[in-house]
Every structure is written in structure tokens, then in C-alpha cells.
Amino acid sequence: MSLSLTVVVLVVVFIGLVQRLWRIGSREQGLPPGPPTLPLLGNLLVFPRTRAHLKFTEWARSYGDIYSLKIGSGTAIVVSSPKMARECFELHGATTSDRPVLHVAELVYKGLEMPLARYGPHWRNLRRAAHDLLNKEACLSHLPIQRAEASQLMYDVLQQPQHLYGHIRRYAASVALSVIFGIHCSTYDNPVIEEFYECQRKWEHILRPGGHPPVDIFPILKYIPERWASWKGLCREVRSRQRKLYFTLLQNCIDRIKLDRRNNSFIEYVLEHEDHYGLTREMTGYLGLSLMEGGADTTAIYLQFFLVLMLAHPDVKARAQKEIDDVIGDGRSPDLEDIEHLPYIRALINEVHRCRPAAPTSIPHAATTDERIGGFFIPKGSMIFMNIWGIGRDPDLFEEPERFWPERFLNSEHGTKPEVDTTGCRSEIPMSFGGGRRICPGFNLAYNSIAMNVMNILWAFDINLPKDPATGKPIVPDEDDTTDGILLTPKPFKYDITPRSEARGDIIRTQFGAAKPTFELFDSADLKA
Ligand code: HEM
């Protein structure tokens, strides 16, 4: 080959390479529309690093209920209507139920935690076991401890109203610990509860924007030595602290079985049926961890938002309290069955879910094969977000979507405008629990906790805006003052909470006293304590 021919070949190869590289980051033929891309980077520079749900929702108004974002050569899909969510996660559930591989999650969980586990036999085994704990009938057997815990929450608020925030967090973690590991934690400063929330806090710190470099987009960053990568040390710390916590709780269950002192906790049951569920001991430990992580924070967040919304919307609170007074009165506190007779409070519960979903962009799913959804091409490996926040605020679906207005759920089962076609929506499960095969398995347990405590709080307490001592003006909480991340947690807020009557205070005290035998079963369960 002559020199000039070699040069021509090299130039052609070079141009070909440049063209290929240039195409990286651009939107492939057939993908859903989306914001304009840049060569190599795609939408990386505009991809929201904080409060992603707000930008996702703004883009949904421009690009529709399914749109795409390019992140380098990768693709993210955002789904923003109930109809598209159903098509994507239910009709195509066989191929859209995977999770994206996140390097930091691999370092902490090694693929064993259920919410982030890949779609496959390991996840299926965990999910099957979780279903046996959390299905509607199984949740009936958790009602005694849930009722006892709810009575403690009311009692704690009565005794120490200034620690409302901590009481709610204790309640949510202790219900999950009792049901899963058979351990009741009577105070917020209990070491198990403290360690649980501390591990959660550290994990959220790693996941926060800037908490680690974009290792999933630039895999070469994985090889940065640990002395220059503090996030790696933090991942190791979280992993070891979590293992210590959850495998100690697991050991407690093993010891109780050995001593024949079972208290019917879920993990005791799983330990005796590991073969049936196809679980190793390691997986059983991570099952307990997954359920704790999925169940405690989310329930606490819901109840905290409920209180913030009651403070900010006294008219709604007053209507809900009138309803509960008419049905329950002064002589007893509400019970779970009462919810059937309280349509306004049911509507209020749905409206809190709509306005303040705990996980506004859910946990991302991933596609295991090339798919066609909504008439568009969805490539294998795409990350798929369910934009729960955007769905709840779609003006085509909801009248005055920014308004906190429970009445919308009185007029229509789904809270949507009358002309909206809701065929196929799962009426019993609000969108804030995700969708498809990965839909939250804890819905029934969460629903019972939420219904009991919302009714109890409205019945027992008046929650009002406190006055600024300097100006005398009421301090209205900022509903948007939350942490940022997969979960949006309201920051501690100011409030005035008082019992609604002496008679109701007495009922709370009596009821808490009557709950003691239920707690005893779980209090004596911590063999190490
Ligand atoms: C208000 C309360 C709750 C909310 C808003 C909530 C919300 C969610 C959401 C949005 C997902 C992701 C669904 C998806 O990928 O499509 C999820 C998953 C999950 N939740 Fe919940 N959740 C709540 C309570 C609970 C409870 C009480 C438990 C268990 C005790 C629980 C355990 C889980 C687990 C294990 C997953 C992972 C499921 C999987 O990947 O297969 N959650 N939850």
C-alpha cells in the first residue's frame, strides 16, 4: 500500500471515529423526545442534581408523559402519567422491573438489599418472603402491636409534646422492628433506633448530590484509591455498621428460637423456613435490613408531612376533626375499623399522598431488553423513573393541582377531574407506592399505621401554628423545607400541640396502660439488653 493510500485510510478511520464519538450523547432514532443534547455529554449538564422531581415535572409539561434524557451513552426515561406508568410498569413489567446498577450500592449491599436488587431469582425469593409478611391478611396479625405502638405515640405526645418529631420516628422504627425482628423500642434514644437512623443518615449522605463522584457514568472513577476517595471509606463504614446492627438482631431471633422463647416475629419464621424461600442466612439478614429500610423512614415521613399540612391548612383540619367528633365522640379513641365511616379522612389521607409523596421520583427501574413503550423505542439498560410528583401535579388530571384539597377525592375515586379516563388505575394503592412488579410490598402495613395515627392525632390533639414571640405573628411551616434525595423528609418544624379535652387525655393514658401486656412480649425479646 502506498503512503498516500495509508494516509487516506487513516483519515477515513479517524473521521469515522470522530463521527461515532460525536454521536455519543445524542438521542437515538425512535427514543422519546427530550431536552436538546450535547455531543458526548447528552443531557448530563442539565440533569438535575438536586430536587430532581421539580425539573422532571417541568420537562414533562414540555415533552409529554414519556420523555428521554441522555446521560453520556446511557438513557434515562421519565414516565409522568398514570396511563403511561401502567403501560410501562404493568403491561411491560416482565422487562421493566430491573434496577440500575449503582456502584455505591454495590459497595454497601453487594446486591443483597431488596429495593436495589437486580430483577432475578435473588429478588424473587426476597419478594416472596416479604409478601408473606406484608399481605393484607398477614397484616391483621400485626394489628395488636401496631395498636399498642399507636397508643404509645399518643401517650408520648401527651407527656412530651416538644419531642413530637422524635416520637414519630420512634413509632415508625419500633413498629417495623417489632414486626420484623420482634423487638419493641420504648424510647427514641434506644441504641437500636439511634443506630438505625444513623446508618440511614450516613447512607443518604453518600447518595446526596456531590456525596460521591459520578462513578456510574465514568466507571474509571471507581479506581481512585481510597485515600483520595472519602466516599469509599464511608461506604465501608455504613456496610460494617449495618451488618453489626442487623446481624445482631438476627442473632437475637436465632437465640429466642433456641431458648424456645419465640414471639412470632417475621425473621423467626423465615429462619425456620429458609429452604422454602430459597434464602441463605446472609439473605435472611438482608431481608430484615431491606424491610426496615423500606418501612420505617417512609411511614415517619408521611406522618410528619401530615402534621405540616394540618398546620398549614387549619380549614382541612377543622373539617376532619368535625367528622371524627361526629362519628367517634368523646367516649373512646378511634380504631382502624372506624376509617370505613370517615370518608373525608380517607380523602385527606389520599391527598397527603398526592401532595407529598415520600419518594417523589420513586426508586428507578431499569429495562432488561429493548422495548417499545408508548410507541417509542426504549433501549435495554435504560433507567426508568416514575415521576410520582409530576403525576400528582398534572393540571390535565387534577383540578388546581397545587391546592391541598382533600375534597377532590370525595368527588372522584382517584381525585382526578371527572373527564379523566382512569381505566386500569389500581384504586386501592396510591401512586406514591410506585408501580408494577416492584410496587411497594409494605403498602398494607403502611396503610394501617397511617390510618390509625391520622385518626388518633385528629381525635386527640389540636395542632396549631405557634406564635413568633417577637412579632406575635403565627409561624407557618414551609412545606418545601425538606431534605433532598430519594426520600424527601420534612425538616423539624414549629408547632403547638395540646390535648383536645381532659377526657381524651384520660383515655390515652388508660389505653397506653392497657397496651403494656402487648409490649411485654416484645420488650423481653432483646436477649442482649
Ligand atoms: C408511606 C409509606 C411508604 C411509602 C410512601 C413507600 C413507597 C415506596 C416506593 C415508591 C417504592 C418503590 C416502588 C417501585 O420501585 O416502583 C417502595 C419500595 C419498597 N418498599 Fe415501600 N413505602 C412505604 C412503606 C413501606 C413499608 C411499611 C415497608 C415494609 C415494612 C416497605 C418496604 C418496601 C420494600 C422492601 C421496597 C422494595 C420493593 C422492591 O424493590 O421489590 N415500604 N416503597
Task: Produce the secondary structure layout.
Elements: H1 3-23, H2 52-63, E1 66-71, E2 74-79, H3 82-91, H4 103-109, H5 121-134, H6 136-141, H7 143-159, H8 164-181, H9 191-207, H10 230-258, H11 266-271, H12 274-277, H13 281-312, H14 314-327, H15 343-355, E3 365-366, E4 371-373, E5 376-378, E6 383-386, H16 388-392, H17 407-411, H18 443-460, E7 461-464, E8 496-499, H19 502-514, H20 516-523
Parallel strand pairs: 2-6
Antiparallel strand pairs: 1-2, 3-6, 4-5, 7-8
Helix pairs in contact: 4-10, 7-8, 7-18, 7-19, 8-13, 9-10, 10-13, 13-18
Protoporphyrin IX containing FE (HEM) binds next to helix 5, helix 13 and helix 18.
Pathway: Secondary metabolite biosynthesis
Subcellular location: Membrane
Keywords: Heme, Iron, Membrane, Metal-binding, Monooxygenase, Oxidoreductase, Transmembrane, Transmembrane helix
